[in-house]
Amino acid sequence: MGYPQPPLVPLNMESISKARADHNNGDAIVASYSAWLEKHPSALNSFDQITSLAHGKKMVVFLDYDGTLSPIVDDPDQAFMTDAMRSVVREVGRRFPTAIVSGRSRDKVFEFVKLNNLYYAGSHGMDISTPLGSLKYENHKHQTRAIDEKGNDVVNFRPAQEFLPQIQELKKVLQEITINVEGAVVEDNKFCISVHFRHVNEEVVGILKEMVETTMESYEGFRISEGKKVMEIRPTIDWDKGRALQYLLDNLGFDNSSDALPIYIGDDKTDEDAFKMIKRIGRGFSVVVSSTPKETKASYSLRDPAEVMSFLIRLGKWKGSI
Ligand SMILES: O=P(O)(O)OC[C@H]1O[C@H](O[C@H]2O[C@H](CO)[C@@H](O)[C@H](O)[C@H]2O)[C@H](O)[C@@H](O)[C@@H]1O
């Protein structure tokens, strides 16, 4: 008795050449990613090299949130990190000074991460809160003492504070002009605003961008940068994620700052400012999270949040073993 035969699929020249093209395209993508990896080697494969350079130094860990600790998802309000990732970050925070540096408002990113043993820099670094007594300099012009929601004495660093009334007004204007653009979402990130277009019809995205750009022409002192299907609007002050990294690094009270070695992991354009800062200060490690080749100043790479988690697990174990 013979085995049942699969139905015969009729092949034509068109389907054969499409399959060949897909195959060749796949090969080309793999080849270009491999070429990119030569320039930005995997931080996992380079782990021993990283830790040997970090030996005897005080490593300080900086982590972006969206696309780094949580995968990019359709709804910004649902960008949860897994409990497993949270445990790993908690462990890292126990072993190294660790900061979350996000474009989100500080409150919102804290709601996602929910860890008390970390530092938080929200609004692209324009909102940093640190426990009173933890900083070397507590008389910076943008610092104010406050009591946080949990009743702790903290030092808030908010270099864009004076822009707050304008940002609130801007939020309302942006909500009004985008109200009829199906899928557009305006997100309040306290010292900056995100206009999301992930769910806007592709043919309308250009019009939306133009509307936002035209509106912003009447608001001096603001800039627009573009992230993943999002326009990020923030005050044009000399402050970004790189400056936030520098502020924390200089201020966390390391006796000899040349011993402090930053490692920054992030996936988006605004993280490039932190990669540039690491280059400028001439020590530390910059790691871009990307599964496709892209222009970056980062030295190392990781493909996705799953690889970020594997890397952080190894980092924690390494510190525990020395
Ligand atoms: O600095 P980050 O922590 O990476 O924040 C950058 C932006 O992240 C969020 O938007 C991005 O992630 C969303 C959830 O995965 C996704 O839906 C959206 O398309 C992405 O652009 C956040 O909502 C923005 O406000 C941040 O500016």
Structural write-up:
GO terms for molecular function: trehalose-phosphatase activity. Keywords: Hydrolase, Stress response. Removes the phosphate from trehalose 6-phosphate to produce free trehalose. Trehalose accumulation in plant may improve abiotic stress tolerance. With 322 residues, the protein is of the alpha/beta class. It folds into two domains: 42-159 and 239-317, HAD superfamily/HAD-like (Rossmann fold), CATH 3.40.50; 162-235, Alpha-Beta Plaits. Helix content is 39%, strand content 20%. The chain is built from nine helices and 13 strands. It has helices spanning 13-39, 47-54, 83-95, 106-113, 164-178, 202-217, 241-251, 272-281, 305-321, and strands at 58-63, 98-101, 119-122, 127-131, 143-147, 153-157, 185-188, 193-196, 222-227, 230-235, 260-266, 285-289, 300-302. Strand 11, helix 8 and strand 12 (285-289) form a beta-alpha-beta unit. Helix 3 (83-95) packs parallel to helix 9 and helix 7 (241-251) crosses helix 8. The structure holds the ligand O=P(O)(O)OC[C@H]1O[C@H](O[C@H]2O[C@H](CO)[C@@H](O)[C@H](O)[C@H]2O)[C@H](O)[C@@H](O)[C@@H]1O. Residues 64-67, 72-74, 76, 79, 102-104, 187, 189, 194, 196, 198, 227-230, 232, 268, 270 line the site of ligand L263DTV3. Ligand L263DTV3 binds at residues 64-67, 72-74, 76, 79, 102-104, 187, 189, 194, 196, 198, 227-230, 232, 268, 270.
